[in-house]
From TrEMBL:
Organism lineage string: Eukaryota, Fungi, Dikarya, Basidiomycota, Agaricomycotina
Thioredoxin domain sequence ranges: 21-116
Name of the protein: Thioredoxin domain-containing protein
Membrane spanning residue stretches: none
GO cellular component: cytosol
Species: Naganishia liquefaciens
Record family assignment: Belongs to the thioredoxin family.
Amino acid sequence: MPLISTPYPQVMNGLFGPDARQPVFLVFYSAVIPATGQMWCPDCRDVEATVKETFDRADKPKAIIVWLEREDWRRPDNEARIKWNVQNIPTILRLEDGKETGRLVESAILDATRLKSFVGGN
């Protein structure tokens, strides 16, 4: 299944191996609050159905979901901000051969034409 949920520290190990299909997408998302069963970030909730439709089937591009806890996200030194320059969530990065070749942030993910082009690499 192309949609992979993983804790952030383990994400980097799966991106650059010989079996990695190209491109690979990193989806930086809010974690789910157990008490409510919803993501803490309203913008992430807004794009959830679109992200699932885009990545959640065997014939879709490979995506790695990076779940961010609210407390971690608020830290200015969190790894998403430092390593990937993610300043807003949701953010989707397109990586090819380990290098960023594109990014969509927040409401741009909901633009169907833009998302299709982004995923297709055009």
